[in-house]
Write a structure and sequence with these properties.
80% of the residues lie in helices and 0% in strands. The chain contains 7 helices and no strands. It has helices spanning 2-30, 38-58, 63-69, 74-102, 108-117, 123-130, 132-151. The chain is globular and about 45 Å long. The two termini are 37 Å apart.
Length: 155
C-alpha cells in the first residue's frame, strides 16, 4: 500500500541521515586533538557501568549474567563501554568547539525541534525530564551537528 511505501521511504531517509551524521562525527573526531580528557571519560564510564549494573539488579541478576544473555563477557563489555565513553567525550568536546568557533547559538526554533525529535511536548517538558544542564549540553551539540551537516563537503 501507499502508506507502506511512504514508511519504507522515511526509514531509508532516516538511515541515510544517520549514516551521514556518523561519517561527519567520525571525521570530526579523527581530525581533532584531545588532551586531559581522562577524568571526563572515566566519569562517563563509571556512570554508564553503574546504570548497566542497576539494570542487572532490577532483573534479579549480576552484570555478568545479564551480559551472558547477550553473548558478552564482562571484560569485553567493559572494554567496549570504555571505548564508547571516550568516543562520546570526544564527540561532545568537538561539537562544543565547533559551536564556539562558529559562534553558534541555540534558538527557540532549535529548542522546539529538539523537543519534537525527542518526543517531548515542548522544550520545557524535556528540560523537566532531563534537567537544564543536560538539555543545554545536548542542544548546543545538536545545533553544531546540524551546522556541520549543512556545511559538509561530500567527497
Amino acid at each position: 500500500t501507499f502508506k507502506k511505501i511512504i514508511k519504507k521511504h522515511k526509514k531509508k531517509k532516516l538511515q541515510a541521515e544517520t549514516m551521514k551524521e556518523e561519517e561527519i562525527l567520525m571525521a570530526l573526531v579523527n581530525n581533532s586533538q584531545y588532551t586531559g580528557i581522562e577524568d571526563s571519560v572515566q566519569k562517563l564510564y563509571d556512570e554508564s557501568l553503574f546504570r548497566q549494573e542497576n539494570v542487572a539488579v532490577l532483573n534479579g541478576m549480576e552484570l555478568k549474567d545479564l551480559l551472558g544473555m547477550y553473548g558478552m563477557d564482562e571484560d569485553s563489555f567493559k572494554d567496549m563501554l570504555m571505548q564508547q565513553s571516550e568516543n562520546s567525550i570526544k564527540v561532545q568536546l568537538a561539537l562544543e568547539a565547533v559551536a564556539e568557533k562558529e559562534g553558534l547559538q541555540v534558538t527557540e526554533e532549535d529548542k522546539a525541534a529538539i523537543a519534537e525529535d525527542n518526543g517531548a511536548e515542548d522544550a520545557e517538558a524535556m528540560i523537566a525530564q532531563v534537567g537544564q544542564d543536560a538539555f543545554d549540553t545536548y542542544a548546543i551539540q545538536w545545533v553544531a551537528l546540524n551546522y556541520l551537516k549543512e556545511n559538509a563537503v561530500e567527497e
